[in-house]
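Module 6 notes. Inverse folding takes a fixed backbone as the condition and produces residue identities as the prediction. Think of it as a translation problem where the source language is geometry and the target language is the twenty amino acids. Below is one complete input and output pair. Work through it position by position during the lab.
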């Protein structure tokens, strides 16, 4: 019995806790409003902070990627990225040239930035996604009826990144407009993700 308890204790010591990481919230196009799950999670997590962009409504890939890199560089603890929508694209591009301090990525509703019918059109400048495996553990959560993403394409990208893929069913864009304000189910998945780091 003592041996089992010691193993459990050692396993608990290896798990990263939210307070031991800097949680970088990376919103998408037009930012995450007050009812969005990213905003609510940020308010709940003492070590969470948002990557602020100069232009939320007219995103420029180079600027958004540079801002994510700046926030990763100024972190004093291991970083866990929490990206939604276009924030996923910015985050994944940002870690291509090195992500030594990034311990994990939690990516929700990645848009199909290679789709020529995506609106607004300038979102395509964030594509194509890098296809190399990410140098850290990651989750990708995608919906089957997301108006900004193709489910099969999201699954394929997750596989190329080496991410654990979560099928969110018919959940729209997984934002406040689709009924995912507090999104407690997502928070449970995030807590499980943190345990794996």
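Target side of the pair, the amino acids:
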């Amino acid at each position: 019995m003592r041996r089992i308890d010691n193993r459990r204790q050692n396993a608990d010591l290896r798990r990263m806790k939210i307070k031991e990481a800097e949680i970088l919230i990376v919103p998408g196009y037009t930012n995450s409003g007050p009812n969005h799950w990213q905003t609510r999670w940020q308010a709940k997590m003492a070590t969470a902070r948002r990557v602020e962009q100069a232009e939320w409504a007219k995103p420029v890939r180079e600027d958004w990627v540079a801002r994510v890199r700046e926030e990763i560089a100024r972190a004093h603890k291991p970083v866990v990225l929490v990206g939604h929508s276009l924030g996923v694209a910015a985050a994944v591009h940002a870690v291509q040239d090195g992500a030594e301090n990034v311990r994990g990525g939690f990516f929700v509703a990645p848009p199909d930035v290679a789709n020529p019918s995506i609106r607004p059109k300038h979102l395509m400048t964030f594509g194509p996604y890098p296809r190399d495996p990410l140098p850290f553990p990651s989750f990708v959560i995608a919906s089957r009826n997301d108006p900004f993403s193709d489910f099969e394409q999201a699954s394929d990208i997750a596989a190329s990144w080496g991410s654990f893929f979560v099928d969110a069913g018919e959940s729209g864009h997984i934002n406040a407009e689709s009924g995912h304000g507090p999104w407690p189910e997502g928070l449970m998945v995030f807590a499980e993700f943190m345990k794996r780091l």
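Reference fact for the lab report: The first strand starts at residue 22 and ends at 26.
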